[in-house]
Amino acid sequence: MTKSPRKTTRLEEQAASVARDERSTATAQDRAFLVGMESRSRSSGKRGATTAQARAARDSSTREGDGAAGKASRPPVPEFDADESLAELKTLAESAGAKVVGEILQRRDRPDPATLVGAGKLEEIAGAAASTDASVVLFDHDLSPSQQRNIEKILKRRVIDRTQLILDIFARHARTREGQLQVELAQLQYLMPRLAGRGIEMSQLGGGIGTRGPGETQLETDRRKIARRVRHVEQQLENVRRIRAQQRQRRESAPVATVAFVGYTNAGKSTLFNALTHSGVLASARMFATLDPTIRAVELPSKRKVLVSDTVGFIRNLPHTLVKAFRATLEEVQRASLILHVSDASSRLSAEQDAQVEIVLKELEAEKRPRLHVMNKIDLLDVEVAEGLAARPANAADGEVPTVYVSAKEGTGLATLLERIDAMIEEDPVSRARLRVPQKEGKALAMLEARARILSRAYRDGTVELEVEAPESVMRRVREWEVEAVRKLNEPTTKKR
User: CA-CA distance, 205 to 224, in Å (whole number)?
Assistant: First the structure.
């Protein structure tokens, strides 16, 4: 008797797909040379201790002093300096499957309008790229179409700017049809102004009766084709938005809150998502491993259920075309009952990364949604610091976002996180009551056992006397046996603005 083949799980399929990508890049891997650019006029912020430790010290001083003094003493958020920005570009290049073979940093008073880095530095880059046998040169800057053409003429190599690199990573990681459509739309919008001069076939006349019309250039034809494709993709994405709106409307008809994860790419959102939901979403150290949103249910300490959504990570200078293209996906953030902003507590750049997340949230008009800040990866800090942070209450001063410190990998602080989420969710509020339920009402008793917290239980004269904490959706079904309503438990701690 032969065994039937075991069905592969979705996680196994994702892992196999990633493995195929890695095998393909290993056989034909781009050799990338990195170019950074810093204007000397740009002011750079000072750096201090690890962000989580600095935040903890700041919160402590704020509580000890008055609120006004605490706000006045808060240091400004520093910017990414050129070296850190170049290090991030290296991570992006490796996520795209390239092997970094060299890098160079140009500092000048202002960018050169023709070549960004200047003609002299460009000759130096050409020599360095040739000596390392680089097949592509990556610029840590957005290039105008004319700058890109001028640089390619001198370097005689493919030139890719930061936006195009991010688009390439998104294209590699898009698994669903929706994700692929969103990436294609962003790529087409990026390509449109860059058609001129991209090869002889796009610049020569292609006129002739019965073809494109006398005098029409190949460039104009290509633009028309791209514009037609853009309209088609936008129409398909609008259908996706309509379907998502219908699904969201069905979810909102029931008293189930939604919690959306946001944060800088590689902050550990998918790992935290898996830890809370016990699911198998692909978690990877590579940037933008998650593009397609995943929604799972989580049971809170109050026995209420919430829907948790894992979304695409943000990044510094996230291309506007991507934000616009992924608006159908990011609507989950706009409509969420609570936003969980996940940060990497072990990173010195955490404050700057948080500032970039704020920029994207403002662009999505979601900056005023109720929010909880989750500092993840405390297992990478010193043991004493991590233990102290994990034990901190998630309190916040007026106008501040409450913060919880966790390690999704180790499971530290997850119980505190769920309790805090429970306290901030306003849908289906929890109350405490005393009930006297006949023992013959087995269905009602089973429901209370499953969906309420039973604080005390006593059997008297064929009835079960209970003191319970239960959501309003449960209390409505047992109201006839209510003896006394004690009090509402989860009064909103954060008012919706």
Answer: 15
Q: Report the C-alpha gap between 147 and 154 in whole angstroms.
A: 11
Mean pLDDT computed over every residue of the chain: 77
Question: Which amino acid makes up residue 424?
Answer: M
pLDDT tens per residue across span 406-451? 999 999 999 999 999 999 998 888 989 999 999 999 999 999 999 9
Higher per-residue pLDDT: 348 or 385: 348
186-223 residue pLDDT tens: 888 888 887 765 544 444 444 444 444 444 466 777 88
| 407 and 286 within one domain | yes
Residue 5 lies in a domain: no
**How is 386-421 classified by DSSP, letter by letter?**
HHHHHTS-----TTPPPEEE-BTTTTBTHHHHHHHH
Residue ranges making up the domain that contains 291: 255-424
Local structure of 85: helix, strand or coil: helix
**CATH number of the domain where residue 55 is located:** 3.40.50.11060
Long-range residue pairs from 251-257, CB within 8 A, at least 24 positions apart, any chain: 251/307, 255/427, 255/428, 255/471, 255/472, 255/473, 256/305, 256/306, 256/307, 256/427, 256/428, 257/304, 257/306, 257/307, 257/337, 257/338, 257/425, 257/426, 257/427, 257/428
Same domain, 271 and 292: yes
**pLDDT band for position 279 (cuts 50, 70, 90):** confident
Strand ranges for 40-175 from DSSP E: 99-108, 136-139, 158-160
